[in-house]
Amino acid sequence: MRKKKLEHKLIKKRKKWPWVLLTLVLLIVLSVGAFWWKYGYDIKNTVADGYSYSEGLKKSDFHPRNSTVVYDRNGKEIKKLAQSSSDYTTFDNINPQISKGLVAVEDQRFYIHHGVDMYGILRSIGSKLMHRRTEGGSTLTQQLVKNVILQDQSQNMNRKLKEMVIAQQLEKKFTKHQILEFYINNVYMGHGSYGFSAAADYFFSQNQKDLSIDKLAMLVGLPNNPTYYDPVANPARAVKRRNMILYIFHQRGLISKRTYLAARERPLGLKINEKKYDNDVSNNYALSYAIYNATEELMKSSGFTMKYDFTSDAERQSYNTHYQQEFERAHGELMDGGYTIHTTIDMDVQNKIEELVNNTYKSYTSRTENGKLTPQVSSTVIDNKTGDVIAVIGGRTTQDDQVNRTINGYHQPGSTAKPIVAYAPAFERGYLPQSSVIDSAVGNPIIHNWYSGYTGSTTVRHALENSINTVAYKLAAQDTKHTYYDDLVKMEFARLDYTQRDDPRLAIGSFTYGATTTEMASAYSSFSRGGKFIHPSNLTSIYDNDNDRYIYQNTHMKKDVYTKNASYMMINTMQSVISDGLGKAAALDNYKYTAGKTGSTDDNYDAYFVGMTPDFTIANWTGDDKKEGSLTANEQTLSMQAFKAEGEYMVGQMKQKEKDFKKPSTVTVSGSNLSVNTSNNKPSIQDIIDTDFSKYNTTQENKNTNRLYNLDYRIIYHLTKKEEFRREDKVQKAIDKYNESPITKESQYDKKLSELQKIRYLNANVKRQSAKARFNRQILQLQKDLNMSQAMFQAAKDNKKVAKYEAEKEAIETQRAQKRQSMVDKLMPQYNSQLQKVKDAYKNNDSDKADQKQKLVDIMNEIRSYGGNVPDVKIATGSGSSSNSSTGSSGSNSSSGSSTASSNSSNSSSGTSSSSNSSSSNSGSNSSSGTNSGSDTNSDNSSNSSNGSNSSSSTDNN
Fold first, then answer.
1. Distance between first and last Cα of the chain
2. CA separation for the pair 483, 502 (Å, rounded)
3. Are the C-beta atoms of 531 and 500 separated by less than 8 Å?
4. Per the omega criterion (within 30 degrees of 0), is the bond before 683 cis?
5. In this model, does residue 181 exceed pLDDT 70?
6. What is the pLDDT of residues 731-776, one digit of tens each?
7. What CATH code is carried by the domain that includes residue 593?
8. Residue 807 CB: number of other CB atoms within 10 A?
9. Burial class (CB in 10 A: 0-12, 13-18, 19+), 525
10. Both 221 and 361 in a single domain?
11. Which residues are within 8 A (CB) of 563 and not within 5 positions of it... i.e. 6 or more apart?
């Protein structure tokens, strides 16, 4: 009974398995279907893009490019950057150990795969899941595509898929040696060096062919992470990496154990090549700033995302490492050539600003221990309307001092931080310049003012005029949402300390890692635009000549930081700093509407001043790079003196009219008092959405329901019906004209595309929404039809190529068949003649009959190798002995004193009363000698031989 129950349970379990399996299959199918439904369209487009991209690739795309050229605002060439890796090395001239080593380390299956190695990808996934470590699954071909063709470091499915498609197409276009050649000449090796030849020259001052195995191993290990394994900055890591590569070389059989042990004991042997290419931009502050901006834009175009806020030191460190690595790569790429850079630089203005600043500091000739002038200076001038950087001063001289302090001169801004951290956010919360505040002890440790004691009750305006620290601290401390920190993030302050997110000391300039004059000038400039921030840059555009595309165009995109009311009140209050406060020394003699703020740090290590007119903003810093000494009283005023000189020049240069800062209609000015008219201050759309989204949504639906039929063109744009219909008629006529001449050949594509674009421009002027939407649908359909036509032309072109290929193939096959038949015809007379000789030899029992028969077999084999057809031949003789010989494709069969039959074999027998039956094909032979009575051997595709009694052997040849 128990046994039956167990059997019953087992049967039930077995019945369940098919259902479980079916369910799993169904789930997999549904998952794949859902995935394809969601991502299928993108995948198909990405694959199509990959194929399209790969079509135009040619060998020259991987060779050195033309020099990068930088132009000023008027189109005049400022600098042509020479190529640093122009010594392109062909595969025949590449050290063979480099190509072998790369394959051994980076892509062992390089000569097996076709661009994408699925085994490598699966191994990489398995390693990450099982061992929690990352292993690369990309082939050398994929790395070449990512770094040279796509120049895209972003991590997403579309980029990876496109990379895989192009990699496979690349393998079809070029040989493995060509792909290795491209990789070896284009891979980034650090320090602006692209390719092994450039790297060997830079790190060892040697030709790559002359490198010893230890130096070569170091270079092979660099592409994995040129920054992390940088032998100059991180020699210990570089040695470990080199030794690991040497071990792999040994394991793969590239070097002997003796060579491995000797090489790993050697030092790195660096001999940095100090040869200067014509890439030095350090002697021109404006130019070096433009190259810095261009490098960051190249980083962004390759998928790098700038980050200004962090949650831990580890996150910041990781970002900094990645940033530095990508910066060096992009900088090397820029220097390597192929780009046209247009800037806002006006060298006349730049040179004049430098002259004015140097004249301000000319009496200070002291130098530090490292020979640099002291005190130092940094100055940034920004156009308020566009956010463009007009001029930058990165120091007092570029002679023996290549530091551009407007880029990396980070110093504490002192009290110049107060407007952007404390006061502007306070005005947003409802404070006014005349609002009362208390100057009293606060903070732990206690915040001190620049004067002793406290003044008690005062106004916000007076507190800013006299730079009262306690008031600024209190205003920031009241900002419980810490919007001041978020505002600094929005304005792209690059070295914020995440631990200061809720630290009111930021209001008095206690920035852990400091700020640059460029950051401060662009932040203040936002006030002149009603609180809208524009990323500071002196670039207009960057054009990629090799790929015929713009990778950057400066659109002066604005970002909301402060409100209009708060921005104007901030400017109005800072005007009092110039007229009645600590900034009087900065007042311009030729322009009275000036605003600004002074700043200094503890022990007077740094002196800051940021000033502005409606048209421009200037931020100046004075101090020592390493805080080696306090500034004197006169030195503390240098930032204001420099602003005064620069500002008076800029007023004349920009032809600035005597006009005050623009005041919002919602702000009323009465003497030094300001007020906000809330009745005129209508809430923005975003305010309404934030307050009550559902109410806003319902209101909008009701408005749309009750709106008169398509009267936007009258209500919003104030157009007459006649004018609007005239615009619509232009679009319709343009569409009709487009349809009158359909595309009939591929050469018309660009013209038709241009016509479509003109129709779009016309439709942009149509303001009746239903008409605009109708035209948009028509234009979209026309675009689809045009694309389809182009695809059909391309398909026809491809079909033509295929047909041509098939015709050529058929002609070649016909030619080959004719040649084979010609050879058969030539051999047939020989065959007939030899056949007769064999017959005669066997008939006469000649001693050379076996040789004659073998010659016949050879001729038959040759005829059959050319596709000819000759039958097996049987030769029978008699007279006391019997011989029955059969010849086949590669054999002979003879018998004496016996009856023997053979097909496609060689079988000879000598003896009495012996019967042997064998079959063999191709190149087999079967011979027997001795006495083998009553034996029967059968062999297929083999060679059988027997010597002695009752023995046999068999071999298989392919």
1. 62
2. 9
3. no
4. no
5. yes
6. 999 999 999 888 888 888 888 888 888 898 888 888 777 788 888 8
7. 3.40.710.10
8. 10
9. buried
10. no
11. 427, 428, 530, 531
E strand spans, 747-892: 873-877, 883-887
Structural domain boundaries enclosing 636: 355-676
Specify if 719 maps to a domain: no
pLDDT digits (tens, 9 = 90+) for 571-610: 999 999 999 999 999 999 999 999 999 999 888 899 999 9
Weakest mean pLDDT among 58-72, 388-402, 655-669: 58-72
Q: Does 391 share its domain with 433?
A: yes
CA 249 from centre of chain: 30
Q: Are residues 221 and 172 in the same domain?
A: yes
CA pair distance 29, 20, nearest whole angstrom = 14
Rounded Cα gap, residues 589 and 223, in angstroms: 58
Last residue within a domain, chosen from 676, 704, 719: 676
What six digits make up the tokens of 21? Answer: 């399996």
Helix (H) or strand (E) holding 859: helix 849-865
Number of domains the chain contains:
3
> Is 910 a member of any domain?
no
Beta bridge partners of 896: 910
Please check whether residues 22 and 95 belong to one and the same domain: no
Q: Are residues 42 and 112 in the same domain?
A: no
- Is there a domain that residue 450 lies in? yes
Task: Give pLDDT tens digits for 778-797.
Answer: 998 998 888 888 888 888 88
Contact 539, 297 (CB under 8 A): yes
Contact call for residues 843 and 864 (beta carbons, < 8 A): no
Q: Environment class of residue 366 by beta-carbon count within 10 Å: exposed (0-12), middle (13-18) or buried (19+)?
A: exposed
Q: Which helix H or strand E contains 104, and what residues bound it?
A: helix 96-106
| Bridge partners of residue 437, in order along the sequence | 458
Q: Is 620 helix (H, G, I), strand (E, B) or coil?
A: strand
- Alpha helices (H) in 637-720, listed in sequence order: 638-653, 685-691, 693-706, 712-715
Which of 648, 676, 704 terminates a domain? The answer is: 676
Residues 507 and 365 in one domain: yes
Task: Determine, yes or no, domain membership for 876.
Answer: no
Concatenate the DSSP letters of all residues of 730-745 into one string: HHHHHHHHHHHS---S
> What's the 3-state SS for 135-160?
CCCCCHHHHHHHHHHHCCCCCCHHHH
Residue 244 has pLDDT above 50, yes or no: yes
